[in-house]
Amino acid sequence: MLLPGSVSPLLAAEDLSEAAGASSSEKPRIAFIGLHGGVFDVLKRYEDDYPLRLEYLEDEQLAEESTDFSRYAMVLIQHARGEDRDQYRQLIKEGKVNNPKLRIISISGLAEKHLPELASAGEIELDEQITAYYGNTSENLRRMLLYISVKYLKQAGNILPQRKPIVVPVCTIPIMRGTSLRASPSWIGLVSRN
Q: Can you tell me the distance from the alpha carbon of 193 to that of 51, in angstroms, rounded to the nearest whole number?
């Protein structure tokens, strides 16, 4: 339900969707490159919470001539392979020519290392807030999608700050050969019950 005077998140995203080659009824596409294992799977769990369409571009896809960054509203890069820097340059430059509203965001700052001329020209941006959300909890990844939706795609919503991850001290429990924690009641107090 929308409040009087509010705008539907889907309507608010129309301009960027159309600039990214999507009709106004389609969700804006966001591409991710070089994420750590399992991160994209967590992001996909939250995709339906926001009017976004998330895609992951594998290294093989980046090498294909059919790959076109202009289809996306944003491309977020965790890391860029040094040996593929010429391909990244081409994809970014062509994407920006065909979609001037395309945003290329470096999540970690590593993209700037391999593509410094694009970073210094403002073609690749580093957003410290996205960096702060990335990679420490699934809740922060969800909040990162909200942040992207509100800040970059101008969708309705309130940006939530990143949560500091809870650090749980790890202890090593020595287990003698032939025993287990179940067989060692004296260790039970050390085991977390979640």
A: 37
